[in-house]
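ok trying again, last paste got cut off:
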Amino acid sequence: MPATVTDAAGPAGTTTTRTVTELADGRELIYYDRGAPPADRTVADRRPLDAAEPSSEVRLDPLTGAWVTVAAHRQARTYHPPADECPLCPSRDGRLSEIPAADYQVAVFENRFPSLAGEPGTHPVVPSADGQLLSRRPGVGRCEVVCFTADHDASFADLDEDRARLVLDAWTDRTAALSARPGVQQVYCFENRGTEIGVTLAHPHGQIYALPFTTPRTARMLDQAARHRAATGRNLFEDLLAAERTSSRVVLTGEHWTAFVPFAARWPYEVHLHPNRRVPDLTRLHEAERAEFARVYLDLLRRFDNLFTDPADGGRRVRAPYIAAWHQAPAGQEAEFALHLELFTVRRTADKLKYLAGTESGMEAFMNDVAPEDAARRLREAAPAPAAAPTAADTATPTDGGPQG
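nice, full thing came through this time. structure:
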């Protein structure tokens, strides 16, 4: 039966409601609304779907120690459907989709074609083919889709601050719920935007993975943090943020957040967004940090959208394809890790992409065509046009960067 829960997670004076229901094949669907949810949040999914039985496994690379997920069933997933067949749009005009309601604010549901699925103990353990050298285990975990808006033609950058905050509430709520599941080592919230990135559904959405292992990039960060602690007695992330806040690579700052191009950026335009107070994950942010995040993040995304124009097409704006990746502490690593978001685009000019060629794909040795200091300057210059005259409530709006004291 559908269940509606009212949370105290919304901005001051409001509430966020969470309505939990099921799709026709038993997958969980959660609506997030600001205030009381509409009646159609309990509308049943009328599609004749059979229960999904995805299976995958994770295999340990003996050369690197990294886990690789093998999920062959995903070859059958939905691929570039026309707009009038989008599975992430609401169910309207007789067309049924993954969202049974006729409209929604933010919706989260279990992926129909997940890379990881199932609870620990629900999949058979596959014995190693060669003792401990070739190690594999069931690909248990969970993959969810986060729909940011019912508007098929919008983008995250088109949202208003309240809707962006509602997405943050959903990310936070799912992080708390998925982190508590047995066998989950890390919760990863992310968005891919643009066909150049490999997106197969154009509707504005992101994903959340509950992973049964710690990702390779996170593991390397934790190793560096341990080395830094041993050498200095201090936290690596705190020292790094302090150094970057005084650099020419700052893009914008607020009272609670700082966005900067990292010193050793891998991508042509790459920005790291940190809360100024170190916390391990989204659940530890306090209200003032949550409130300011929406303003800072929307500003940052709109700068990315202002980076490129096509002079051959009358100066038409060329939106930047991007990946936005939340890095959160794995289970048991909360003491040293720092929550942060990494945002980057594969576009290096209006008509050129950054491909991962021989050095990057073959050796994981990145080579960047754009100096990080130049990228930061371009992003500072790409500030979105000012909105209407600010009110008293807008006085905490983040300011452009430059060297920060």
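cool. The longest strand covers residues 186-193. Helices lie at 161-179, 216-232, 236-244, 287-305, 358-363, 372-381.
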